Amino acid sequence: MTDVSAHDPVAAPSSETRDDIGRLVAVTWHASGVIPVNRNNRWLVAVDGSDCSLRAVAMAARLAALGHEGEVDIVHVQPWLVKEAAETELARRGWAATARARQRLDAASVRWRLHVVMGEAASQIVALAETPGLAGINGIVIGSRGQSMAKSLMLGSVADKVAHQAKVPVMIVR
Questions:
Q1: 106: closest CA among 173, 27, 11?
Q2: How far apart are CA 103 and CA 105, in angstroms?
Q3: What is the C-alpha to C-alpha distance for residues 132 and 128, in angstroms, rounded to an integer?
Q4: pLDDT (tens digit, 9 = 90+) per residue, 93-144?
Q5: Closest by alpha carbon to 27, among 69, 77, 68, 64?
């Protein structure tokens, strides 16, 4: 596997969000300029850089392609970073982890927006799906790593947590 992020410099983000101590907690990029919101065909896909999440991206691209001017919002969640590390690492890590996903959406001519946030993965994915900026999304597409039932019950998977917490439909892709 080649590291596409090594040749993919981090683009300037479209927006940043900071917490009450001034720590960078979220960064958003648009594929090319501002994307008009299509409330009829918009999907949120969770990406962690794994092959499983790339299958979810492929499904989200197919769903977006079914309707007119479909769009995909990509979300990548990083664990909490200290203030100094967040400044230098949050955007870089998120951009690198989503490189293949963004390339696939570009190749499919699907408009995208990338959201990189910090926190616990399931709760951040659900929280993003409920923000006013994503109001009216069709649903969340997320990959499942295919854990055994026992392991999933003991650890709890991000996909399972999202499916139980989300107020919008969730499609789990294996």
A1: 11
A2: 5
A3: 9
A4: 999 999 999 999 999 999 999 999 999 999 999 999 999 888 889 999 999 8
A5: 77
pLDDT in tens, 124-134: 999 999 998 88
**Which token pair is 93?**
């890590």
CB-CB contact of 145 with 52 (8 Å): yes
**What are the beta bridge partners of residue 43?**
72, 139
Distance of alpha carbon 123 from alpha carbon 158, whole angstroms: 9
Determine whether 138 is exposed, middle or buried from the number of CB atoms within 10 Å of its CB (0-12, 13-18, 19+): buried
CATH number belonging to domain 15-173: 3.40.50.620
Domain boundaries, given as residue ranges, for the chain? 15-173
CB 113 within 8 A of CB 29: yes
Q: Crossing angle for the helix pair 99-107 and 51-66, nearest 10 degrees?
A: 30
β-pairing, 42-46 vs 15-18, is: unpaired
Query: What pTM did the predictor assign?
Result: 0.87
C-alpha distance across the termini of the chain, in Å: 21
**Contact present, 101 and 109 (Cβ < 8 Å):** no
